[in-house]
């Protein structure tokens, strides 16, 4: 199949105004990101794109709840909100990328695969919601909302405010992986596992059923990378490099770290749950299977990062960071 690179786009990277962006604003953010991915495709990389949906799925869920409260319209189950964001964001990436290739005179085809991702109904994460979705709130706002909706849960998200959380089971199989592989083999740029994939459970006789949750897109991306034998996993997010002591006066950006060093920083709690921790865990899982290298960076640094001139590189060999 040739060397495949998977590039994950963070859902937060597509949102600037905490829930007040228009669809056009989001499309413009997608267009900015796509330019950097098109550079990679133009340079000859076989690219698969995945994306998050944390903010967007929370907005969709809230729209549905408000329509239910105000107009009595049937609420949309969370799993369908995920499917809606996968289609909506996938459409924007697919169109922006098609247009970018056309602008450059590149003869490249793009396709988005509606992707179901299998989870276990016994996953303990169903009992303990951890995935932040939707807007950021102040502590006071979140407490007021908890009084109005006693079943809602909130967490503090990396110093950025409080967010509602929903269950996030671990992905165990990418149902459409064979279709994704076929498209890669046919030289398509493929967009897949959007929003972490649509969570489904396997029933008798190889049938599936949706289940309400939001799968972490970093874990889903890592599993897809493993199942299609990708060499490189690139996770793009809001920062150019992963840091230790993030947000503190002694913050330090990391450019190259080994698996052992990464584990040590993880044990020292440098990576918060719900933001940087899943990216690190997904990276380690990929490298400990058959993955060759992982890069964590922001979209604008992609071109330099693949030349090892930017980003945080997690590698299998031992390196000393200090
Ligand atoms: N140790 C860290 N190093 C760098 N960024 C961190 C760290 N810990 C938390 N962050 C924050 O986490 C963000 C990435 O998480 P998040 O925005 O939830 O991901 P996504 O881009 O996938 O939506 C970064 O943009 C940064 O603000
Ligand atoms: N599903 C998911 O992990 O989305 P974000 O990357 O936007 O949080």
UniProtKB/TrEMBL annotation:
Keywords: Arginine metabolism, Kinase, Transferase. One of its GO terms (biological process) is L-arginine deiminase pathway. SUPFAM superfamilies: Carbamate kinase-like. GO terms for cellular component: cytosol. It catalyses: hydrogencarbonate + NH4(+) + ATP = carbamoyl phosphate + ADP + H2O + H(+). InterPro entries: AceGlu_kinase-like_sf (IPR036393), Asp/Glu/Uridylate_kinase (IPR001048), Carb_kinase (IPR003964). It comes from the Bacteria. Belongs to the carbamate kinase family. This is Carbamate kinase. It comes from Psychrobacillus glaciei.
């Amino acid at each position: 199949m040739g060397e495949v690179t998977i590039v994950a786009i963070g859902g937060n990277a597509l949102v600037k105004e905490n829930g007040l962006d228009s669809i056009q604003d989001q499309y413009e953010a997608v267009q900015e990101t796509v330019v950097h991915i098109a550079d990679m495709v133009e340079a000859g990389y076989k690219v698969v794109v995945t994306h998050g949906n944390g903010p967007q799925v929370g907005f969709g869920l809230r729209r549905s709840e408000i329509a239910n409260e105000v107009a009595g319209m049937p609420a949309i189950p969370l799993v369908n909100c995920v499917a809606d964001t996968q289609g909506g964001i996938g459409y924007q990436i697919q169109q922006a990328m098609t247009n970018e290739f056309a602008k450059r005179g590149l003869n490249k085809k793009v396709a988005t695969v509606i992707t179901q991702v299998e989870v276990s109904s016994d996953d303990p994460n169903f009992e303990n919601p951890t995935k932040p979705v939707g807007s950021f709130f102040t502590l006071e706002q979140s407490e007021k909302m908890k009084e109005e909706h006693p079943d809602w849960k909130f967490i503090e998200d990396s110093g950025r405010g409080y967010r509602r959380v929903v269950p996030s089971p671990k992905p165990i199989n990418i149902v459409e992986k064979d279709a994704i592989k076929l498209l890669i083999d046919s030289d398509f740029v493929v967009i897949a596992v959007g929003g972490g994939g649509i969570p489904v459970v396997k029933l008798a006789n190889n049938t599936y059923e949706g289940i309400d949750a939001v799968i972490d897109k970093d874990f889903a991306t890592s599993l897809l990378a493993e199942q299609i034998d990708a060499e490189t996993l690139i996770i793009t997010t809001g920062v150019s490099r992963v840091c230790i002591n993030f947000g503190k006066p002694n913050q330090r950006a990391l450019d190259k770290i080994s698996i052992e060093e990464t584990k040590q920083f993880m044990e020292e709690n440098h990576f918060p749950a719900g933001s940087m921790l899943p990216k690190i865990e997904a990276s380690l899982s990929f490298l400990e299977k058959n993955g060759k290298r992982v890069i964590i960076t922001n979209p604008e640094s992609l071109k330099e990062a693949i030349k090892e001139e930017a980003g945080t590189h997690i590698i299998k060999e031992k390196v000393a960071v200090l």
